[in-house]
Amino acid sequence: MRQRHFSTLQLLLSALGGAVAALALALLAAWVVLGPQAVPLLEGLAVIRTQFVGDYDPQAMTDGALAGMVDGLGDRWSHYLTAEAYEAQNQRRTNTYIGVGITVGFEDERGMTILSVKKGSPAGEAGVEAGEIITAVDGASVAGEARYDGSEAVMGEAGTPVALTLLAPDGAVREVTLLRGAVETDPVSSELLDGGVGYIKVENFYSNSAKRLREEVDALLDQGARALVFDMRDNGGGYVGELTDMLDRLLPEGPIFRTRSKGGPEEVVESDEEHVGVPMAVLVNANTYSAAELFAAELREAAGAPVVGEETSGKGYSQQAIALAGGGALNLSTAKYFTGEGVSLIGTGVTLDARVAFSDQDAAALAAGKLDHGADAQLQKALELLGY
User: Fold this and answer.
1) Sign of the C-alpha dihedral, residues 93, 94, 98, 100?
2) In 133, 182, 249, 325, which residue has its Cα 20 to 30 A from 69's Cα atom?
C-alpha cells in the first residue's frame, strides 16, 4: 500500500483549519444559545488577549465587564458582586458580619448616608452618628455612582483599619479610622407602650428575623398587648421566606404574596387560619424597601392596618444572587412580586393612610435611635388611628 506523507506546513494548515472551524462552531453556539450580543463579547475578549500590549489584571477585566453588563440593564436593583463582595453579602445576611456597625442609604449623591449606628460597634465607639454622609473610604470618593459600591469598600477582614471621610449635616468634614470587627444584629426588638400597645421594630428580613418577630409578638400578647405597631422605617428588606413567615403569623387565612418569574407560572403563598386578633398599624418612610414595603402593603390589604409615614421606595422586583464560576455573583432582578390580591408596588409604593413628614432633625434622631416615642409624630399618629 502506498503511504501518504504530510509536510509540516500541511499539518499546520490542517490544525489551523480545525481551530478556525472550532471557533466558528463556538461563535455559532454562542449566537444560538446566548443571542447575537454574545458574539462581540467573545470577539472583544479574543482581541484583548491577542493584541493588547499593556499589563492588566484578567480578574479585574472580567469584573468590569460583568458590572458593565448588568449596569446596561438599567435596573437600579440589579448589580454585579465581586467574589469578595458576594462573600461579605452572604455573611451580612446572617445578621452577623465583619464591618464597622453602620447601615447606609444611597439617596444623597454626595455619598452614603449613615442611617443607623449600632451601639457598641466600632463606629458607635468612635462617635460616628446617623445623618452623617460618608464621602470617601480610604481616601477614594464614594460620591455619585460610586456610592452604590461604597459599602463593599467599608467591608473587610476583622482587625483591619478603614478610614471614613464624614460630612456632618452642618457641613463640617472629619475623618475617622475604624478597626473592622464582628458585628451581630438582632433584627427585631419590642416594648410595651402605655395603653397596652406593643411596639415592634424590624431592622431587616434576613436570617432569623421571622423567628424573632414571632417571639416578640407572642411576648407582647402575653403581656396583654391590645394592639401592635410595626416600625418598618429604614428597613431595606431581605428574604421573601422571612417575609411570608411573618405575614403567615399575623394575617388570617388567604393569599398573602404573589410572585411571577420570567416565563414561569405565578406562585401564590397562602396564610393559614392562625393569626393575631388585635388591631395593627405600620410605620414607613422613604428608606422602607422591598420586603418591608410589601409587609406594610399586605397588612393594610388583609387586616386593614393603617400605614403612616412618608412615601416608600416603590420597589416591586425581587433579586436572586446567582453565583458565577469566578466566585462572584449576579444580584439580578428575577421576579416581580405582588400583594395577595395582586397589587404591584412598582413606581407607587405603599398607599398611606396618613402622611406625616419629618423634619431633617427628627429624621436624623430617628436614624440614630434617639427619637423619643413622645416626640415621634408618625408613631403618635398611628396610635391615634388605632384609638390609643
Assistant:
1) positive
2) 133
